[in-house]
Amino acid sequence: MTPRDDATAAQVRAAQPDVSTWLAANAGSGKTRVLTDRVARLLLEKVEPQHILCLTYTKAAASEMQNRLFKRLGEWAMLDDTSLLDSLRELGVEGRIDSERLRQARTLFARAIETPGGLKIQTIHSFCAALLRRFPLEARVSPQFVEIEDRAADLLRAEVVDGMADGPDAHLVQSLAHHFTGEDFGRLTKAIVQQKDLFQDPLDLGGALCVFGQPADVDEASIEDFVFQGGEQELIDQIIPPMRAKGGNDEKAAMRLAALPPLGIHALSELETVFLTGAQAKEPFSAKIGSFPTKATQQQLGSLMPLLESFMSRVESARAARLGLNAARKSLALSNFAHRFIALYEEQKMLRGWLDFDDLINRARALLNDDKVAAWVLFRLDGGIDHILVDEAQDTSPAQWDVIRKLADEFTSGQGARTDTLRTIFVVGDKKQSIYSFQGADPREFDRMREEFEQRITAAGQKLQNESLLYSFRSSAAILCTVDHTFSDHADAGFGAAEKHIPFKSLLPGRVDLWPVIPKTDEAEEDRAWYDPVDRKGAQHHTVILANQIADQIKQMIDSGETIPVDGKTRGTYARRPLTAGDFLILVQRRSDLFAEIIRACKNAGLDIAGAD
Q1: Which residues contact 564 (CB under 8 A, 6 or more apart)?
Q2: Cβ atoms 10, 468 nearer than 8 A
C-alpha cells in the first residue's frame, strides 16, 4: 500500500471507530469524508446501523453524507477480493482481513438498507421530531403534531399581529409601532419568537430603567426640571444674533438653535448636537466649554457666557438620563408586546397541533431535562444509541448542545443500558465557518463543550482525542495565505496560530484580485423611461456599477481565452483548459439589491447563469 500523506493520515486518525474524537476541520479539508469513513468503519466493527446517530445542521448535508456512504457500501458489494482489500486498507482498517471480513463488508450495503427506519443520518431538528413522536405524552405534545415550515410560521405570526391590532391588544401594537423603524414587521416577530425565553417575565418601567443604569423614578418631567431651570429661551434668543453675524460654524449653530421646538424633552436631542462634541471627539458627547461659540463671539456675549456654559453642562449631564429613559420606554413597549404576542402565537400553534423548528429543539430539551420522565426516556433511547456523530458543530446552539449532552450522559456515567458495549462521540466543526448566530449558534460553545466532554470522558476512564484537519484540498496557497493573513489577529474566531491553512495542492496556481471600492452614490432620481419599474436601480447606482463590472470581467476572461489549472494525469501535475461560465461562483453576503443586479447583469451580458443558488 502506498504510504499515506500527512493529510490522509490525519483523516484516518480522526475516523478511528474505537475512540471518541473532537475534530477541528478547516474548510475543504475533507470532513464529510471523515464522517462517512467513521460510519463505515463502525459498521465494519459490527455495530448495528440503528445504534449509530449522525446529526448535522441541514437536510442537504444529511443527504450528501447518506449518499456518499451508500455509494461506498454499494461499491464494496461489487468489488473483487483484491480491490476490496485495497479499499479497506485505504480506509484505515488494520490487522488481518480474511475472507469472512470481506464477506461482511459486502453485506453492509444490504444491512444499512434493510435497517428499520434506515440509518439515522439526519438534522438535529429531524431527530428531535422523531423523539417527540416516540414520547408524545411525556413531552406533552399532540401525537399528531405537524412540523410547520418557515412560510406557514410567517403567515401565522402575521395573523396573530393582525388579530392583536384589531382587538383589545391594539394599544400594544400601537405602542411598539411608535418606536419601530424597520420596514418588515415580520422580521421583528420572527426574532421575538427566536428569543422568546427572554420575554417570559413581564417588564416594568422601573426595571427597564435599572437595566440602563438609571434611577427607577426618572421621567421626562424630572429631566426637564433639571435642564431647564428658567431663562433658557431668553438666553438662546440673545446669543443667536451675534452668532449669525459671525458667520461660519457659529451661523450654522444659530440656525439650528432658531429652529428648536419648544424647550422641553424633545428639544434636548438638537441641543446636544449644538452644545456637545461628536462621537469621534477625544471626549465624546462632552460640553464644548471654552470652544463654543468661537472666541470672537464669546467676547461679544460677555456676561452671558457663564449662563450658557452652565446650560451646556446641564445638557451634557442629562444626556445619559434622556437616552436611558428613551431606551427603557422602547424596551417596555417591546416587552409588553412580545409577552402577549408569544402567548397568542403559542396558543394558535397548540390549537392547530403545530410545532416550529425552535419548538422541536426546546420540547426535546425539556423532555430530556424533566426529572419525572427523563430517566425513562434516556433508558429507552440508551438501548438504541451507541455512537453519536455531530457535524457542523460550530453552528450548534446552546439549546441543541443541551440535547446532545443529555443523549451522551449515559456514555460516561457507567449506568447505560448496555455497559459492555463500546460507546463513542465524534464532533467536527470549524469556528471560522459559523454563520448561524442569528439562530442562536455560538461558536464559543465548540471549545466549551470540548472541555466539558473531555472532563466527563476522562473521568470515566476513557479518552477523547483532539484532532485537526489543516490541509485544504479545495484552494490554492495564494487564497489560503490571504485568508490567514487577513484574520491573523482574530484568534477568538478560530484563526489561532495552530489553525493555519495548509494547501494540499501546494503547486496549484492561484490569484487574489482586490478591486477598488465603488463609492456609494446618491439616491437622486435619474431620467429614465416612464415604463421602467420605479424600484429599478438607475445605471449610475453603485450596485448596478459593481454588478456590471463583475459581468464584464467574467465575459472578458471567457472571450479572451483565459485558462484555469486542472489536475493532470499524474498526481501533483496540472494542465490548463479554457474558462467557461460554469467555472465562476459569485458569493454575496446576503440577498440584497446587489444579488439581483448581478444576475441581471450576467444575463444582459449573455452569460450562462443558473440564477440564485
Answers
A1: 576, 577, 579, 583
A2: yes
- How is residue 303 annotated by DSSP? T
Most confident of 80-84, 384-388, 458-462: 80-84
Full 3-state SS string of 528-577: CCCCCCCCCCCCCCHHHHHHHHHHHHHHHHHHCCCEEEEECCCCCCEEEE
The Cα angle at residue 216 between residues 212 and 220, in degrees rounded to 5: 85
Residue 525 is predicted with a pLDDT of 53
Closest CA to 566 of 478, 505, 483: 505
CA 8 to chain centre: 31
Q: Alpha helix (H) ranges present in 115-169?
A: 124-134, 136-139, 150-165
Q: Report the distance separating Cα 83 and Cα 103, nearest Å.
A: 13
User: Residue 54's pLDDT band (boundaries 50, 70, 90)?
Assistant: very high
Beta-carbon contacts of 54 under 8 Å, excluding residues fewer than 6 positions away, are 35, 39, 62, 65, 119, 120, 121, 122, 389, 391
142-156, 166-180, 563-577: segment of lowest average pLDDT: 563-577
Measured distance CA(217)–CA(39) in Å, rounded: 62
- Examine the pLDDT at 183 and tell me if it is beyond 80: no
Nearest in space to 29 (alpha carbons), one of 527, 341, 474: 474
User: What is d(CA 90, CA 9) in angstroms, rounded to the nearest whole number?
Assistant: 10
Which amino acid is present at 531? Y
Q: Return all residues near 439 (Cβ < 8 A) that are at least 6 apart.
A: 194, 395, 397
Query: Is 162 strand, coil or helix?
Result: helix
The three cell numbers of residue 583 are: 467555472
Which ranges of 353-415 does DSSP label H, i.e. alpha helix? 357-368, 374-382, 398-413
Three-state DSSP state, 390: strand
Between vectors from CA 29 to CA 24 and to CA 30, what angle results, nearest 5°?
A: 100
Helix, strand, coil % over all residues of the chain, rounded to 5: 55, 10, 35
Cα–Cα distance measured from residue 54 to residue 15, given in angstroms and rounded to the nearest whole number = 14
Whether residue 160 has pLDDT greater than 90: yes
- The pLDDT score that the predictor gives to residue 417 is 45
Q: What is the pLDDT of residues 190-209, one digit of tens each?
A: 989 988 888 888 888 888 88
Omega before 242 cis (within 30°)?
no
The pairing of beta strand 563-567 with beta strand 574-578: antiparallel
Q: How far apart are CA 586 and CA 184, in angstroms?
A: 27
pTM over 0.90: no
Cβ 125 vs Cβ 360: under 8 Å:
yes
> If you ran DSSP here, which 8-state letter would residue 81 be given?
H
